[in-house]
Amino acid sequence: MPTPQSILKDIFGYKEFRQYQHEVIDSVLQKNDTLVVMPTGGGKSICYQIPAMIFPGLTVVISPLISLMKDQVNQLNQIGIPAVVLNSSIPNQEYAENMRQVEQGTVKLLYVAPETLLLQRTQNLLQGVQLDCITVDEAHCISEWGHDFRPEYRQIAEVRRHFPQAVCIALTATATPRVQNDIKNSLNFPAGNEFIASFDRKNLLLQVVDKIDAMQQTLDFLNKHKGESGIIYCFSRNQVDETAALLQDYGFSALPYHAGMDAADRDKTQDKFLRDDVDIIVATVAFGMGINKSNVRFVVHYDLPKNIESYYQEIGRAGRDDLPAECLLFLGYGDIRKIRYFFKEKSDNERHIAETQLQALLRYTEYNDCRRKPLLNYFGQEYEKQNCGMCDNCCSDQKELQDFTIQAQKFLSCVKRTGEIFGALYIADVLRGSKNRRILNFRHNKLSTYDIGGELTKKQWGLLSNQLLRQGFLLRSEEANGGLRLTEKALPLLRSEEKFYAEMVEDYQAPRTSIRDIDISNYDRELFEELRKYRKRLAEEANLPPYVIFSDKSLVDMASLYPQSEAAFLMIHGVGAEKNKRHGMGFRQIIQRYCKSKGIEEKSTGHRRLKAQQRQKTPLKYMIIGEAFNQGTSIDQIAGHYNIQAQTVINHLVRYAREGNTVRHHNFSKDYPELDSLKEKIASAFAKHGDLRLGPVFAELGGSVSYELLNVFLLQNMVNAQEPA
């Protein structure tokens, strides 16, 4: 009988669960409706894929991301998990074949778009099979307060009513407390039973840079990431095409990706990116790529995203292998006007929501302390560290500050005299004596602050205003025009009771820090490249993305520890029994040849996991008891020898069997004759509540059956289910 732990190790190749994964899986297996909020790359898929392998029936996964569905189904099929997809992107013949497989019960997971789920033929299909689990992926789409609201998601609750036997699990990476409540209410979830993981992606370096010469700034950034996979997000399709073309001209491996392209071209582009045939994808922020590529080393926001949810989701595509990755956002105030332009098309309520979300993003970009504080706070979590060591404000050297008191007074005074309703660039125009029609219409050319700021360029005045915002002398109005307003802190500065010091406002600003400055990973880069080339060859032969073979983190582990024996190789991250069987020998041969040529010895024996295993001289108690029982020792004899109760012996034997060990065939009814008369009653209770926790079963039976007898029932079933010797 497979257990969540054995599936995790043998099929997925991971040694341990991440935060809340095991608890979520237990909850789902007990048929409890469950809300899961985990960061992008936090392992949400495992939370429903493992239960799907244990449930006897079908698990339906509802997702709005067609490309992600395709990617996940391919990965599942490659590791032996039968899964299919139904959506508008697949040919009719494939669609019919996938429906046939679902009807015949040969698949464990069915991925569908929400529109597909609502079709009558899909409803008829699901009515004819045993449906155990309904998975709502990207569940924030159900909420109007989510960043990607989709009306079709609101109808999922109605679909659920037709399948009362199916548990529902809703998952998202980007849900504020308000959105979390909206999801639960919309899906009719009972109170509680939610798992909210930390939103902190510790391996991501967060950085915001004033947007001055975005292309040159991007080129300088990319020169530090040559040969690495990355995504650049732009606001418009035209900007995507233009940026990708310029990068190609400068010799970078880059392709565009947006909704205006032909679907076949988009698929080709995505496949090239997944297979490491192209390094950089330039995409619109409005179009979710839905990729599961683990080795994205950087994400650049060439233009400002619309809200924190979009930003967080998009940077979450970097560093999914837990290695350091870099996230750079260009803050350009012209981008704010572009975003607000599209607010006009929304209803009053939608416009209010969009403006509130935009203001939260701007507060994040203008924050002067650790960036993780406002980012995590937006999602309802407190960040308690004073220095994260992985954002520009925490880890970069502070530039020398200069006295800009006079310039600050000019700017603040002009903001006040123009009515505190205009943005930074308009104020800069007034200070520099612009004669544009807007200034003349408002008669701002008559103000005392008109044409007194010629010492700075318009761009420099804009950069100075950024620092006034960051230091709290200004705030941005939450009205639709987002004009600047003075804070109480500004008054002493205007009265010359305080001075204002700021970084030199230059016409060019490079990123202040780099992952290279703080990357502590210590591995053999030459060996890493050899392993990467071999992985690429295997992936091409199998028609798979390379990260499906092994992630970059696995290769880094290999290039750090030089595992040459099978025991050491099995200690590498992401290496399970199945992957070791498929690929272990080839990778070990490369490592062995490399180490022999360089005179390097295997370091794996010094690896903490292997050392801990080797230090375990005494086997665990349940292993000793399981082996003693298999050698013919009776339960009473074991209990007497170890001075423990028979109930404890049974508990150890259950654990021994759950870990995948064979238990000798034995008629436990002889030792517990009352078991036969209670079997049907106990089986019914376990069928209702699952067998991972005894408490609900004990309560269902009103306490009439002891925990010891419940465990005996489980043990007898596990022994009977074993393959005959």
Explain what the structure shows:
The longest helix has 22 residues, at 577-598. This protein has 725 residues and is α/β, with parallel strands linked by helices. The protein is built from 36 helices and 17 strands. It folds into five domains: 4-196, Rossmann fold, CATH 3.40.50.300; 204-395, P-loop containing nucleotide triphosphate hydrolases (Rossmann fold); 402-503, Winged helix-like DNA-binding domain superfamily/Winged helix DNA-binding domain (Arc Repressor Mutant, subunit A); 521-603, Orthogonal Bundle (DNA polymerase, domain 1), CATH 1.10.150; 621-721, Orthogonal Bundle (Arc Repressor Mutant, subunit A), CATH 1.10.10. The two termini are 16 Å apart. The chain is 48% helix and 11% strand. A hairpin with a 7-residue loop joins strand 15 and strand 16 (484-486). The protein has a seven-stranded parallel sheet, sandwiched between helices. It has a six-stranded parallel sheet with strand order 8-13-12-9-11-10, with helices on both faces.
SS field, number of helical segments: 36
- Domain tally: 5
Strand % is 5-15%
CATH topology of the largest domain: Rossmann fold
**Cα-atom radius of gyration:** 30 Å
Shape: elongated
Sheet with the most strands, sense and barrel status: 7 strands, parallel
According to CATH, the homologous superfamily of the largest domain is: P-loop containing nucleotide triphosphate hydrolases
User: Which structural class should the secondary elements be placed in?
Assistant: alpha/beta
Q: What is the percent of helical residues?
A: 40-55%
